[in-house]
Design a protein that fits this description.
CATH topology: M1 Pyruvate Kinase, Domain 3
Strand order of the largest sheet: 1-6-5-9-8-7-11
Mean pLDDT: 90
Low-confidence stretches: none
Helix content: 10-25%
CATH architecture: Beta Barrel
Number of helices: 3
Length: about 150
């Protein structure tokens, strides 16, 4: 599958506002430069534009994707069942560790959003950054099989 990076957001502090960026520096084993989540397995949250649009279509006024509080919005890539696979965004690889489940912050942003994102993988995926490098909106995105030995 091939797609592209549609949007980038970082949050300066936990539960803080999401700042839109045109590009961001990725740090292997840490995450996105300037983002509150650093290290661990949940360094970056990725979600799909197509899945977002399908999940929010029933809303009279669909919320903008930044209310999802994810870091990277991709298109043309199906993240369902991507656990263990590697997402390539431009020069940077991200190992997907699992599915991101919606939390109470979704309903605080838009009533009913949490339920809309309950469909499996509708909330996106989370993972760890494997490479140092810079990614930018418009970069190509591919989802490959799990890598061994990394």
């Amino acid at each position: 599958m091939a797609g592209q990076l549609e949007s980038i957001w970082v949050k300066r502090m936990k539960r803080g506002p999401m700042d839109a960026l045109d590009r961001v520096r990725c740090v292997a084993g840490r995450g996105l430069a300037g983002n509150a989540n650093q290290g661990g397995r949940r360094q970056v949250t990725i979600f799909s534009k197509e899945t977002w649009e399908r999940a929010t279509a029933p809303f009279a006024n669909p919320p903008p994707p930044q209310v999802r509080r994810g870091n990277l919005l991709v298109s043309g890539v199906d993240l369902a069942h991507s656990r263990g696979k590697v997402l390539q965004i431009g020069p940077v690889r991200i190992r997907i560790f699992g599915e991101t489940r919606p939390c109470e912050q979704m309903d605080a942003a838009c009533q009913g959003l949490r339920a809309a994102l309950e469909e499996p993988w509708a909330g996106g995926a989370f993972g760890e950054v494997l490479d140092d490098g810079e990614i930018e909106v418009g970069a190509p995105v591919t989802l490959g099989e799990a890598e061994t030995g990394t």
